[in-house]
Amino acid sequence: MKVLVTGTEGYLGCLVAPELMRAGHEVVGLDTGYYKYGWLYRGSDRNPYTLDRDLRRMTVNDLSGVDAVVHMAELSNDPLGALAPEVTYKVNHGGSVRLATLARRAGVSRFIYMSSCSVYGVAEGADVAEASPVNPQTPYARCKALVERDVAPMADDDFSPTFLRNATAYGASPRMRFDIVLNNLCGLAWTTGEIAMTSDGTPWRPLVHGLDIAKAIRCVLAAPRDIVHNQVFNVGDSAQNYQIKEIANTVASVFTDCQLSFGDSGGDNRSYRVDFEKISSCLPGFSCDWDAVAGAQQLHDVFSRIRLTSETFTGRGHTRLKQLQYLIETGQLDADLFWTY
Ligand SMILES: NC(=O)c1ccc[n+]([C@@H]2O[C@H](COP(=O)([O-])OP(=O)(O)OC[C@H]3O[C@@H](n4cnc5c(N)ncnc54)[C@H](O)[C@@H]3O)[C@@H](O)[C@H]2O)c1
Asked: What CATH number belongs to 2-329?
């Protein structure tokens, strides 16, 4: 298949594109390049040709001859969404719905959208499954729910959207992000020897390795259309619903010189356990290859190999919010996050 992957210069995009190329797909990337500055290590010898284009300026011609779109280019977490919520709605909601509309018009038959388990927000009681009500708590999560709501009705005999509600990712990537929980705790453990949590670590957070997300996308593209047509899949593994304190203990067990302590506040109120039964039973070939212990070990190996410094860990190269703030403050991006030159 000819696959257009948006966000190929992102944390997940630079894992997904090589995975699809290895599977035999012809991949073209698209990315506006907000995080070019962040490049932790050389990852793959397979990188797709990437259009240097803002998602909001794509045309139907950019999709000519494309069989499938994997859409990952968005402002990618809650703090970014809070930086300028109205821009988040323009990029993540408006830009994504517009892309799906263009793709359908161009005759693209598969559209894989990177949604998030954060659409479940705060959920008490039983594990949330795909049919559970969504309860998004932030502009970022609300945009994910809105894209699902607006793209699902576009499904027809020629256009099959699939919505992947990914758990919070972890693991090594050349375009590393240190603003997600397991990666952040590993970086703290390596660079400071200490994880001092202000919260009690009780909230639940499902995790999934970036390479398992890439595998899910590969499996969706390979699946018969009727299995994935207009379907929502939680992406992860029911065994990988962790409490934050469990994630911290896992990191401390791998980074053995690290001191770990907890506070007593509730902290971040997002807490949900997710049921991942549907993806493992319905999507042919999918199961997670990684867990938090293996992910922490992988990061320990990478940090050791590249001699990760605290400047790299705390710098703007690998923390999305800091990099966007820098680009805005220095006038390189305007208020709508378009490049000024
Ligand atoms: N990492 C996670 O834990 C996680 C979990 C669930 C869902 N997701 C979703 O997966 C997708 C990829 O996440 P990621 O962690 O790789 O994010 P990322 O921030 O590392 O990468 C996003 C990429 O998209 C590009 N981009 C952003 N806005 C753009 C625009 N307007 N036009 C063109 N390119 C643009 C950026 O330059 C960046 O390279 C996002 O949609 C994110 O919401 C991520």
From this structure: 3.40.50.720
Beta strands in the chain (DSSP E): 2-6, 26-31, 49-52, 68-71, 110-116, 160-166, 168-170, 194-196, 204-209, 231-235, 241-243, 259-261
The rounded Å distance from CA 256 to ligand 1 centre is 32
Verify whether ligand 1 is closer than 6 Å to residue 184 (CB atom): no
Q: Is the CB of 165 under 6 A from ligand 1?
A: no
What is the domain partition of the chain in residue ranges?
2-329
**Token pair of 318, please?**
């690998």
Give the angle 173-174-178 at the CA atoms, nearest 5°.
60
CB-ligand 1 contact for 207 (6 Å cutoff)? no
Looking from the CA of residue 9, the nearest atom of ligand 1 is: 39
Average pLDDT on 162-182 reads 97
Other beta carbons less than 10 A from residue 241's beta carbon: 20
Q: Which of 196, 199, 32, 204 is nearest to 118 (CA)?
A: 204
pTM: 0.97
Angle at 47 (CA atoms; ends 45, 48), nearest 5 degrees:
150
Give the dihedral of Cα atoms 146, 266, 178, 295; nearest 10 deg.
Answer: -100
Which tens digit of pLDDT belongs to each residue from 221-231?
999 999 999 99
Spatial distance between the Cα atoms of 155 and 160, rounded to a whole number of angstroms: 5
